[in-house]
Give the backbone structure.
Amino acid sequence: MDDPRANMEGNGLLGLGAPRVNWAKTPGRVPGFWLSVAGTILALPVPPAGFILAVISLMFSGKAFGVIPAKARGRGLNLTAIALAVVAILVSLVRVFA
């Protein structure tokens, strides 16, 4: 094979390493966070709306959490969204049943 494009020697591609995946673009990560923020804010004045937004947020964030590997960049926002959604669900339930 004399194709000059097949010559890997000296072209620098091997020094670049493997490509890095951008986990910040995982579907559901950012919408899950903003829905959890909205659910937490609405949990006190309008508990049913806060509960619904928090459950939807938990679904979005849960799917993104299952895709992003441990210690990957972008996982912290996902964990924050899950924590906020759980807090919003608990506050909504306490407000409705108390």
Summary: The chain has one domain: 23-97. Residues 23-97 form one domain.
